[in-house]
Every structure is written in structure tokens, then in C-alpha cells.
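User: For my dataset I need records formatted as: sequence, then C-alpha cells, nothing else. Please produce one.
Assistant:
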Amino acid sequence: MKKLIFKLIPNSLSRRTALLISSLAFATVIINMVIIFYFEYSSSFSTAEKYIDSQYKIMSSDLAESIITDDIYSLFTMIETVSQAIPHIDNIAVFGNEGEYVTDAKVRPESLTATISPILLTKEISAGNNRLGTITFYINRESIIRQITRKVIGLFFINIAVVIMGALVGVAIAARMTKPINDLSRQIANLDVLELPYKFNISEYASGETRNLQNVIEKLSFRLKDSIDRISEQQKELHRSERLAYLGTMSAGLAHELKNPIMAISLIIDNVASEIGDNSQWQEDFTVIRREADRLVFRLNEFLDYSKPVNLRYDEIRLSALIEFIKGQTYRKVFSCMEIVFTAESDPLLVTDKDKVSQIFTILLNNSAEAGASKILCSFDESEETIKIEYEDDGCGFKEEDKAKVMLPFYTTKPTGSGLGLAICATIADAMGASVNIAEKQSRGARFVIRLPKRPQV
């Protein structure tokens, strides 16, 4: 039964609205017809009863006189006239004191009980205190029903016409009401993912619910656009990471292959230098060869550091002790020409790899030295879960177009750079759950913001 009802219900919202309006209107018509029929029936009977009462009062004395004088003709004439004057009266009969038949308005005593469903209203005929007989009025129920039925049928057709007009108006109103949501559905169906985020156009008279739906879908389109952009960036990053991983593997293999010959060259140069003795011209050439060989070994070690996985060893250490360890590892001769200032307002307990943190600072200090910096400021600020480190120098800094690329491997702005220093910093930071980012700086120089977790991220 339920499935049958669901099959009969149209899918269109406008048609459902029209069906609902029509059903309610038709039900209203039926209820109205029943109520009208009931009240009309009651009113007709009440009217007939009032007519009977008024006529009885008028002719009661004449009835008594006719019975006393046994004037049957006058009695018949009187009740016949009254029966024709009062609506819905089928007959009027007069009976004697003992209930014997006297006369009736139609002079058909055998048919007095033949009327279908008559309504009987009996009044006494008396003279003073003497009861002379009774007069019975036969109200025709069928006549009342026929009259009411004709009236109700007329009203029914009028109401049906009103219902049909209301249904047509309802269809038009429903179509206009559902137009905004239909427009919205059509725009969604024709939506091109490449056009996200999307703004929808709907009618000004759209309902609040439709506008809420529009806002929700527009927000979803913005979120979808962000998700697609992130996925696209992740795919690009994944492809880049795959290429870099392949390049790193090749670099590691090449570095191993080149490192041994360079070490062999250095050993041979040392042996030749010891054999030649103090020949200044040759010793100067040997010094240049050794320096270039050392530079090649340093670059090869950078390649190896970047290509191999980061192995972390965590220890508990106070921030002040970590700063002192960094100073001890980085205050080398190459940095002696720079002023390096470390500041920290608190001294929390950290769980971190101090060697890797020191390596990050060593790389940054090397870059600052090569950029011609004379002063380095390092501030440590504690938050709930991290240590924010701001590193600033007064070197030549970065060009605006280089800031987005300097953290990428093999990208360098220096003629002799390998482009791996900051990439190694980023790799170490990622392994530790930290971050190294270039920040804006108003004056000359470079500024980095490092966020170091207080404890390893699980």
C-alpha cells in the first residue's frame, strides 16, 4: 500500500505542491458539503416546524369548532389549505379523541402510513380543558433531502470550479516557487570543475532555504577548489620528490665514485710535495690543488648528507645548554669576523637532537658568512609546544624572486654554491617535525623563522 502511494506521488516539487493544494481543496469541499447538508437539513426541518406551530395557533380554535359541529368539509378545506401553504408537508390528518380517523388533506386514509420515512408532528385539538382529538402533520423527508441535494450539487460544482482554478493557480505559484531551485540544479549540472570556485545566480524572490542551499554549495565549491589545488600541489610535490629522490640516488653514487679518486689525488700530491721539498713554485701549485680537492670533498659530502636518510638521536637538554652547544660547534675561525648574539627569555627542557639543530645553524652561519654578513641575531621564544627561533643577519639577503626557490635542492644564488645547504636544513627540520622558513625583513639581510618542537612528534 505504501509503495503504491509513493508511485502515485509525482516526482516534481511543483506537481507535488499542486497535488497537495488540490487534495486539501477537495477535502475542504467534501467537508463543506457535509456540513452544509447537515445544517440545511436541520434548518429546513426547523422552518417547517415553525410554520406548523404558527399555523396551528391560528387555526386551533377553528379546528375545535369544526370537530364539535362535525363540519368535516370545513375541516378538510382548512387542513388542505395549510398543507399547500407549508413547505415539505406531505399530508395533514385529523383524528378523534379515541384515535379514530376523521379526515386528511388528501382524503386518502389508506396512504397515511405509506409515505417513506415521514417525520410526524402531532398537536392536540382541545376546547377549554376538553380534549377533542389530534392533528398530525406529515413532513416529507424526501422533499427536504431533494431540495438540499439540488442546492448542495450546485454548490459542489461551484466549489469544484474554484478548486480547479485554485489548482491551476497553485501550479503556477509552485512553478514560480521552484524556479530558483531548478535554476540552481541546472547550474550545478552544467558546472565545470575547471571553473571552481563558482558563484550561482538565482532569482531575487528565491526562498531563504534556497539561498541557504546556494550559500552551502558555493562554500563547498570553494572548499573543493582548495582541495583540488592542494591535491595538484601535492602531486607536483610528489613528482618533484620522486625526481629529487632519483637525482639524490644518482648523486650519492656519483659522490662515492668521485670521492675515492679525489682522495687518491690528494695523497699523491702530498707524496710528491714531500719529495720535491721546499720548491716554492711547486708548493704553491700543490696548495691550490689541495684546496680545490678539499672543496670537492666538501661538496661531495654535502651531496651525501642530502641523499642519505636523517638519523635522529634525541636527548633531554635545557635550552641554555643547547645554545651553548651550538656556540661550541659553530664558533669557528670562519665565523670569527661576525658578531653572533643569542637571546632567550626562558630556559625550558627540550627533547631534541642537538647535533642536527647545530648542523642547521652551521649551514645558516655559512650562508651568512658567504653573504658578507657582519652581525647575526638569534632569539629563542617559548610557546606551549614549540620554540620559535628567529635568525637574522645583515648580509646581502635574497632577491624577491629567489625567496620561493632557495629552499629547493640544487638551486643557488652563489657562483660556487651547490644549492644544497638550505635544502639540507629543510630535510633535517622535516625529519624532526620542525620547520625552517624565510621571513620578511624590512632592512638589508636575510631572516629565517625556525619552529622547533619541544618534544618529538608522535
